[in-house]
Automatic annotation (TrEMBL):
Enzyme class: transferase
Species this chain originates from: Candidatus Methylophosphatis roskildensis
Coiled-coil regions listed in the entry: 34-75
EC id: 2.7.13.3
Reactions mediated catalytically: ATP + protein L-histidine = ADP + protein N-phospho-L-histidine
Keyword Mitochondrion: no
Record has Phosphoprotein as a keyword: yes
Gene3D superfamilies named in the record: 1.10.287.130, Histidine kinase-like ATPase, C-terminal domain (3.30.565.10), PAS domain (3.30.450.20)
Domain Histidine kinase: 186-398
Single GO molecular function: phosphorelay sensor kinase activity
Lineage summary: Bacteria, Pseudomonadati, Pseudomonadota, Betaproteobacteria, Nitrosomonadales
Record's keyword terms, sorted: Coiled coil, Phosphoprotein
Pfam families for the chain: HATPase_c, HisKA, PAS_8
Protein name: histidine kinase
């Protein structure tokens, strides 16, 4: 077949013609899409600009806060370094995490990393005062702990109260000396009366006609007056000294038992019922046995002297988380309101044979132990009505130990 024939048989290949309306619509849609993209781009640029401004402001605020916190940390660091009080930070496990220079000066430069309880047991021993500890050089530290809620640790504050304790002791001594100065005139009278009586009785020994029976009676009176004089001088010296002997850890049961052994026979001899009670008898106190037992016996003997026959005198002991209180109660006639304000004055007494120093000494013993002695109005108890109550309170000793090491608040 010839080429001419092929050309004749093939269909014509003309390009398709596009409708002008469709072309116009396509251009319109393209323009709208371009406008939308342009507006979106402009919006994105505006948002980027706004975010850039806000980010710059946030960065500036963060920088300001960082600078403030850095300045605060610097001030706190300077403050901790300058504080005379020791500051120790403990972690959740009770390990020393941080310590300021004052704490290191008190406890040693290598305390970081130590267990706090082990550090206390190794370097300090508890004093007779609550929250106060003493090291080997007699440095007295007041130690208080506060929980850190944010991390579960604790912060420990250490205050050197050595000088404060010395000043308290000196102030107490000066107070006693002032009281001694005020009582000199009364003391001269108190001493003169029994001494004059003793001299008068002793002068009768020179009488040649003195019978043997009279001689014995006179001798008995002389001894009685001299014993009164000796008791007066002894009580005066105890009051003036104002100190107590060495201390030991005793339970309430031990103290009440010792006091009862001394007072029960005296009460029975006068037809008076004596009751010895003890709540939480195993609770313990750090005391000078002789001084505290003597103070309690003095209170009980005073009550026995005021209660009529068939009356009741009781020694009770109350315990709370921090204190032990010994209560001496009786159902006697009570103490007149006019006399109550003068009970603790040295040399004030309503008893012919009294020295007037017993209550003053008992209060001094209580205060030397870190407690106090006070008179309370009468109160009711099951089946009884007490008209008079003296309350002698002392700090309670902590009793938790691990082996021979003290956990808190107690001497080893």
């Amino acid at each position: 077949m010839s080429d001419h024939a092929l050309l004749i048989d093939s269909p014509s290949q003309e390009p398709a013609q596009m409708d002008p309306a469709d072309l116009a619509e396509a251009f319109r849609l393209f323009n709208e899409a371009s406008s939308e993209l342009s507006r979106a781009y402009d919006g994105l640029q505006a948002q980027v600009a706004q975010l850039t401004v806000e980010l710059a402001q946030a960065n500036g605020e963060l920088r300001r806060q960082y600078q403030e916190k850095a300045a605060l940390n610097e001030r706190l660091g300077t403050l901790l370094a300058a504080l005379p009080a020791g500051v120790v930070v403990l972690d959740r496990a009770g390990t020393v995490d941080q310590a300021n220079p004052a704490a290191m000066a008190m406890l040693g430069n290598d305390i970081v990393g130590w267990q706090w309880k082990e550090l206390l047991a190794t370097q300090l021993s508890a004093s007779d005062a609550t929250n106060e500890w003493i090291d080997a050089s007699d440095l007295r530290l007041e130690i208080r702990e506060t929980a850190l809620d944010s991390c579960g640790g604790r912060i420990v504050l250490l205050h050197d109260v050595t000088e404060a304790q010395r000043m308290r002791t000196l102030a107490a001594r000066n107070e006693r000396l002032a009281a001694m100065g005020e009582m000199v005139a009364g003391l001269a009278h108190q001493l003169r009366t029994p001494l004059s009586a003793a001299l008068l009785y002793a002068a009768n020994f020179a009488a040649p006609a003195l019978r043997a029976s009279d001689r014995e009676r006179v001798a008995s009176r002389v001894v009685e007056r001299l014993q009164h004089l000796e008791a007066l001088i002894r009580d005066m010296l105890v009051f003036a000294r104002g100190e107590i002997g060495s201390r030991e850890l005793m339970t309430i049961d031990q103290l009440v038992g010792e006091v009862s052994a001394n007072c029960d026979p005296i009460a029975r001899g006068k037809g008076i019922e004596f009751l010895a009670l003890a709540e939480s008898a195993n609770a313990a106190v750090w005391v000078s046995r002789t001084d505290l037992v003597g103070a309690l016996i003095n209170l009980i003997e005073n009550a026995i002297g005021e209660v009529p026959a068939c009356g009741i005198v009781a020694l009770d002991a109350e315990v709370d988380a921090t204190n032990v209180t010994f209560c001496v109660c009786d159902n006697g006639p009570g103490i007149a309101p006019a006399l109550q304000k003068r009970l603790f004055e040295p040399f004030f007494t309503t008893r012919a044979q009294g020295t007037g120093l017993g209550l003053a000494i008992a209060r001094g013993v209580a205060r030397a132990h870190g407690g106090d002695l006070e008179l309370r109005p009468g109160r009711d108890s099951p089946g009884r009505r007490w008209t008079t109550e003296f309350r002698l309170s002392l700090p309670r000793a902590a009793e938790a130990k691990t082996g021979n090491r003290v956990q808190s608040g107690e001497k080893p």
